[in-house]
Design brief:
single chain, alpha+beta, Maf protein, 8-stranded mixed β-sheet, 5 helices, 29% helix
Length: 204
């Protein structure tokens, strides 16, 4: 049976990034929904790593012969005691638009000086392999919270996450540049090395 990777997400924006970053892995990459898995997974872990593993194990029960990947990612703002953190997707309500979430966070930081607006995106990626082996990696990108919502390229909190080295938010970056620098890009590249070492590149 052909080796394939199944990602525990239904988020199409996330899948676009994943396909770009894992393009040369030599295995097809699917979302769980593309393969008919539509489970409502309760993410009740206390860390990004725990939530990623919860999601990966849940999908692995449905597809035990595949390499299952799952990520949990979010925004940590130091001034807000690292909130929204693991609750990033559920911050201000799961169905609340990110325009509103971003505006709420900017309001909370109203008047806070630049040096106290430090923040980071965090991404933990967990892999559950068919032999039961479980591996987890973490990637981060450090930046500051901008003073306004800027950029159309990203999603989620990208329009308020300013990356000083590039002089723009991650929502203003070209996709290739964002994938090179981003928390998810770093974590997925680290996981790609683990998959390569464990499975080898799939035959062309």
């Amino acid at each position: 049976m052909e080796k394939r990777i199944v990602f525990a997400t239904g988020n199409q924006n996330k899948m676009k990034e994943i396909h770009m970053i894992l393009a040369d892995l030599g295995m097809p990459v699917y979302s769980m929904k593309e393969l008919g898995v539509d489970e409502n997974i309760v993410e009740d872990g206390l860390t990004f790593e725990e939530n990623a593993e919860i999601k990966a194990r849940a999908v692995a029960r449905h597809l035990p012969n595949d390499i299952i990947l799952a990520d949990d990612s979010g925004l940590e703002i130091d001034y807000l005691d690292k909130a929204p953190g693991v609750y990033s997707a559920r911050f201000a309500g799961e169905d609340t638009s990110y325009d509103i979430k971003n505006r709420i966070l900017l309001d909370k930081l109203e008047g806070v000086p630049e040096e106290q607006r430090t923040a980071r995106f965090v991404c933990a990626v967990c892999a559950v392999f068919p032999d039961g082996d479980v591996k987890t990696v973490r990637g981060t990108i450090e930046g500051v919270i901008a003073h306004e919502i800027t950029g159309e390229n990203g999603f989620g909190y990208d329009p308020i996450f300013y990356y000083p080295e590039c002089g723009c938010t991650t929502a203003e970056m070209e996709p290739e540049k964002k994938n090179e620098l981003s928390h998810r890009g770093k974590a997925l590249r680290a996981m790609r090395e683990i998959i390569d070492a464990k499975c080898g590149k799939a035959e062309e």
